[in-house]
Amino acid sequence: LALGGHIAELLPVLLTGTTAGYWALGLKDIGQKSHTLRRNFPVMIHFRYLLEGIRPEIQQYLIEDEQKMVPYSRAMRNTIYSRAKMKIGAVTHA
């Protein structure tokens, strides 16, 4: 690695900066009084906020919504499969 010497010089600075930022964010979260989750789970709650922010994209591309009726909801599909297999208890919905 041609940059090995430079990375070795920057690594302690980067680790120190990351650790200092982590502690600053954690102490800020612990010190505030308005959000219980931020006080009880400092720093980690920011990952939750990040995931809540990208939830629509995750839902759209990775997870099928249970309530969507396109083409069938999961409950309707299970009912159709049960009726096709002639299982007892697969009654029609009036």
Note the main attributes of this structure.
single chain, 94 residues, mainly alpha, 5 helices
Would you write up a description of this structure?
The protein has five helices and no strands. The chain has helices spanning 4-31, 36-40, 44-53, 55-61, 74-84. Helices cover 65% and strands 0% of the residues.
Average of pLDDT: 80
Order of helices and strands: HHHHH
Number of strands: 0
- Provide the structure class: mainly alpha
Dominant shape: elongated
Low-confidence stretches: none
User: Helix proportion of residues, in percent?
Assistant: 55-70%
Number of helices: 5
Give the DSSP E fraction (strand runs of 2 or more residues): under 5%
**CA distance, first residue to last residue:** 72 Å
Rg is 25 Å
How does the major sheet shape up? Answer: none
